[in-house]
What we know:
It is built from 15 helices and 29 strands. The chain is an alpha/beta fold. Among the domains are: 144 residues, HUPs (Rossmann fold, 3-Layer(aba) Sandwich); 105 residues, Alpha-Beta Complex (Glutamyl-tRNA Synthetase, domain 3); 66 residues, Glutamyl-tRNA Synthetase, domain 2 (Orthogonal Bundle). A hairpin with a 3-residue loop joins strand 27 and strand 28. It is elongated, with a radius of gyration of 32 Å. The protein starts with a helix and ends in an 8-residue tail after the last strand. The N terminus is likely disordered.
Amino acid sequence: MASPIDSKETPAKPSNFLRQVIVRDLEEGTYAQRHWGGTPGDAAHQHAGPLDPAKIRTRFPPEPNGYLHVGHAKSICLNFGLARDYEGVCHMRFDDTNPEKEEQEYVDGILDAVHWLGYGWDANGTSHLYHASGYFDFMYRAAEYLIEAGHAYVDEQTPEAMRANRGDFSKPGVDSPHRSRSIDENLQRFRDMRDGKLADGSAVLRAKIDMASPNINMRDPTIYRIKHAEHHATGDKWCIYPMYTYAHPIEDALENITHSLCTLEFEDQRPFYDWLLDRLAEGGLVNTPHPRQYEFARLNLTYVITSKRKLKQLVDQGHVSGWDDPRMPTIVGLRRRGFTPEAIQLFADRIGVSKADSWIDYSTLEIALRDDLDPKAARAMAVLDPVKLVITNWGEAMGGDDFLDPCSAPVHPHAPERGKREFMCGRELWIERSDYEETPPKGFFRLFPGNKVRLKYGHVIECTGSTQDASGRITEVLAKLVPDTKSGTPGADAIKVKGNISWVGVADGVKAEVRLYDRLFSVPQPDTSEKDYLEELNPHSLKVVTAYVEPSLGKALGDEKFQFERHGYFVADRKDHTPGQGKPVFNRVTGLKDTYGK
Ligand code: ATP
Ligand code: MG
């Protein structure tokens, strides 16, 4: 069923269960009467404002404790993408309710990553960039309200007793002896907690729900704990901090979020999410109708780990060169590797969202990348494992050993308007070592004694042999030019050849460092077995070679992407490539074809 909204807003996107929920809410006007006070706030603040100009509100709520990875990219594309497609707004929210040191580096990195992916949080003349720690006052007030309404109590059991009394799947929980305390006593004890009169771990505030609930998360979950710790934003104002499960629904409600999207492991938390917001709505504290939580499967990508903590370990222990190492699945790593925002968005669209956990094959990401780069990337010739080819009759055939023959090739074969690249053919060229065989295996069409091949964009040559050093290693491949066969000249096709060799002139070729990256882990599902995931690292994930590239690449700008003919896609390294200063550095982005798992 194609609804009018869906077909108008998202002609190309396949539908999914989240889009269906949103379309239904828009059709039914679920949130149409809600007001928005211009900033996050309680019910009174929102009611005082006009009707919410945003049809839906979603949010992306990272904890600023590391760099974002490809799993976060899925969440970003989803949340910002849905807001864009349905005339909504996506809030950028730092979930900084833990009193841990917030590193500015991570905050900046996260904002950069979201921008780079193509999204922003400015809409309707406002910046929707928020910090969850900005809501501590409200969270405290809401906690006192819950106590006053008989929905929360201070529990002073030991953590061990609390755990034992929670029960398990087969055993209902046991009420805490503090569960029946009076409201006044609870209020007093909670204020004692707030005022620093109690030690860490000696008391918690718990929601009073149902100790026999089949959902263990509903057995009086903890909502506040004592932690005498400084907070980066609120300093030492607080020594009690809200639990995530309490904080998150409140953050959503204060921000007028309509659809709160999270990963499947939060499914069992949804009843508490609703319970809490229903109680706060009863008390007139939060705007209604309140946000709803929807769960989708997190991204698991083969050969990749997506845990900030473990990625940090790879960085801290020097297994990679940093968060932006081109082998890292971080957004900065993917960017430096040569991924484009469009490729990542395409990937996110293709994998879609589902309700079932699964592993996505790494090739899906690479295919999206090739699909994006193929029409964009300029072509170039590069020789990654060079050996010299000497055309022994060059002087005779071309009128002098030093003569250089200008050749050209299209920047892009399907876009003639992008012009031509120019380079010189001469007596000495660099070719791939693997393009020559002294004794050719069956089906080998490239260089071997007696065989004719075409130098791409140049003449046909006939191989005459090779020279070798004492160890038998080939030092030069020898050939003779066949006159009047230059590509693009009349009669060039008179001689038919099966092999087409890419090359770079010794005279005008540019020496370059090329970093050949491979998968960081050598097993398809790292970190899922008994084994330490560090033992699953691929020892051959980086190989650095000295290559020769055609002169057009000497002018490549950092981050510029190319297709090296026959080899795949390469990018001028953002950090180390210094255009025009004699040290070109290219990263292999991906091969021309899928070789993963093959
Ligand atoms: P990590 O365990 O790597 O720290 P996290 O889920 O704790 O990940 P947050 O900073 O809390 O990281 O995540 C911000 C948002 O990104 C959350 O809404 C979360 O659901 C989403 N997210 C994180 N990892 C993935 C993933 N692999 N696939 C999809 N969404 C993800
Ligand atoms: Mg987290």
